[in-house]
Amino acid sequence: KERKLILAIESSCDETSVAVIENGDTILSNVVASQVKSHQRFGGVVPEVASRHHVEEITLCIEEALAEADVKPDDLGAVGVTYGPGLVGALLIGISAAKAFAWAHDLPLIPVNHMAGHIYAAHFVEPLQFPLMALLVSGGHTELVYMRETGSFEIIGETRDDAAGEAYDKVGRVLGLTYPSGKEIDELAHLGEDTYHFPRAMMKEDNYDFSFSGLKSSFINTVHNAEQRNEELIVKDLAASFQASVIDVLADKTIRACKEYPVKQLVMAGGVAANIGLRDRLSKEVTEELQGVTFIVPPLRLCGDNAAMIGAAAFVEAEKAHFADYHLNADPSLSF
Ligand code: KG4
Ligand code: ZN
């Protein structure tokens, strides 16, 4: 069988990542250089800092990914790169590196949508089967995407304001936790109980949209009011209450969407897909309520930003002969 090797590059936010993927489903290497420590003291990603780190890391990551995969540039068949959505300056570093590499080694260039990449991360767990529903939950996105076939994406619902991960990070800041705080809130939530009963926005509405800004405000008000009155706050219960509210709306709408649309699989992807509470809840509800539907969540290391997922999505694009020329530009607000 012919070996089709793709070098994949991801630099849309605060991780510089390069991977070598074989035939779209086997990871030969997946190097991730995280900048998270450099952004922590600012409580969020600083675009200019991110770009500088990408410049410093990108060639090292390419060399490391090739060495780890034991692959020479001549063995490769294509270069895939994220061109959006993301931070424009960050995206441009990956795109420039991909163009230079493709030009130097006479390889075709494949433009990849970062969010498609998150969905295709599930392909490393189990071959994707269509039609499928994908719940994409990250720091920048919260959306339900319906895929009738490979490479086809239809957003059936999305957040009207904050993304789920963004809400976790903002609430974490109020609690004085380190950025990004999703993982820590998830851990605290498992120790506490839903005693604060925050709102579940839009849960009963007849659509697949989400809203998290009301929950965030309600949380912040609760904390500030308690501080003013010198009342004691139980942090683990605050975390549990916040998380219960997020999980209730995400799970409710996702399961409803899977009942309305014909689906063979439900894929959950993006950084917030690492959330243990959300994984457990959806897994249980799919088993109980959706006969014949398989629930797939990528392993934790493939939930956050990485280039392996970009390589999997690039393989699909290459099969469809979707290539780019050297005019390829970053598209910071790229949608499906
Ligand atoms: O997909 P990702 O790595 O980057 C974006 O493209 O946004 O997602 C990062 C987000 C952050 O907001 C982070 O707090 C959140 O994912 N996150 C979590 C968990 N682990 C990471 N949120 C909730 N529970 C977690 N266990
Ligand atoms: Zn992402």
TrEMBL record:
Binds 1 Fe(2+) ion per subunit. One of its GO terms (molecular function) is iron ion binding. One of its GO terms (biological process) is tRNA threonylcarbamoyladenosine modification. Substrate binds at residues 136-140, 169, 182, 186, 275. It is found in: Cytoplasm. GO terms for cellular component: cytoplasm. It catalyses: L-threonylcarbamoyladenylate + adenosine(37) in tRNA = N(6)-L-threonylcarbamoyladenosine(37) in tRNA + AMP + H(+). Pfam families: TsaD. The keyword tRNA processing applies. Keywords: Acyltransferase, Cytoplasm, Iron, Metal-binding, Transferase, tRNA processing. The keyword Acyltransferase applies. Signal peptide: none annotated. Its EC number is 2.3.1.234. InterPro entries: ATPase_NBD, Gcp-like_dom, KAE1/TsaD, Peptidase_M22_CS, TsaD. Fe cation binds at residues 114, 118, 305. Its cofactor is Fe(2+). Residues 26-311 form the Gcp-like domain. It is an enzyme of class 2 (transferase). HAMAP family: TsaD. Belongs to the KAE1 / TsaD family. NCBIfam families: gcp_kae1, T6A_TsaD_YgjD. Required for the formation of a threonylcarbamoyl group on adenosine at position 37 (t(6)A37) in tRNAs that read codons beginning with adenine. Is involved in the transfer of the threonylcarbamoyl moiety of threonylcarbamoyl-AMP (TC-AMP) to the N6 group of A37, together with TsaE and TsaB. TsaD likely plays a direct catalytic role in this reaction. This is tRNA N6-adenosine threonylcarbamoyltransferase. The lineage of its organism: Bacteria, Bacillati, Bacillota, Bacilli, Lactobacillales.
